[in-house]
Amino acid sequence: MKELILRDIYLIRKNLLITFAIFIGIFLLGLLVIISAKHGNIAKYAFDSELINEILTTSSAFGIVAGVILGTAVEHIYNLINKDYNCGWHAYLKASGIRPEVEVGVNYLMVVIIDIICLLAGIGGCQILKFISGTGEGLLIKGSYAGQEGMIILVWFSSILLIFGGYFSVQEYAYKGKNNAKVDLIKLIPVIVVMLAGMIVSIVLLQNEERSKEILLNLFEKMQNVTVLYVLPIVTSIVVTVVSYLISVKIVKKEGKLV
Q: Which of 2, 152, 173, 207 has its CB 3.0 to 4.6 Å from that of 248, i.e. a possible disulfide?
């Protein structure tokens, strides 16, 4: 298994470096904004202290965006499954006697490892920017959890990546890395459903602003606990990943599904 993991890392090394470089670039951009707001042109030409405080609060968003960009690195592992089928590596592993549990397990293990590393790096970058800016306010989350806003957003984003990644991986194994309109549509179904649901909810909420505010406030109050903010997304993503792994193993054992 160690050799297979090293092989995956070697194949995606350039993509990982590019993604990490983007992460560093966005983080440094946020750092420059903080420095400018405290000691540079923003501090010199800003109209009032309230504007500077808003800019410093917004600077944490650079850390969040950087973490989100870094988290997308797990996509490189999903793409490897597709390439392994197309280049014959999957057939080679089967002929070599590698058990499906090991072959599939390496891919899922790499996804989880990269996701955890990206999550920790993103949270670290966000917290560093918050510390340097000296603001504990949140852009979206108010109250006692405002200081953990970046951490909460990145935990949810990472969990969503694992959930969708498990689904996409199962599809790659089911269709043996094949690419056609039918497969692409099937892969995009959950994304389309989520987007449509979001649009419908937004349209409904916009019809009644007062009712919308009431619903959002009630929802926010219910989310003000550790279980919903951290435990729920993490446990859900782990369960979905394990189930996706078991399904993928079963598919590989049965030689996959022909389109």
A: 173
Residues in the chain: 259
Q: Give the tens place of pLDDT for each residue, 76-104.
A: 887 888 888 888 888 888 888 888 898 89
How many CB atoms sit inside 10 A of residue 250's CB? 13
What's the 3-state SS for 206-251?
Answer: HHCHHHHHHHHHHHHHHCCCHHHHHHHHHHHHHHHHHHHHHHHHHH
8 Å CB contact between 123 and 150:
yes
* Radius of gyration from C-alpha coordinates of the chain: 22
Q: Name the residue type at position 23.
A: F
Q: Please, are residues 257 and 175 in contact by the beta-carbon 8 Å criterion?
A: yes
What are 205's two structure tokens? Answer: 């909420």
- The whole model's pTM is what? 0.78
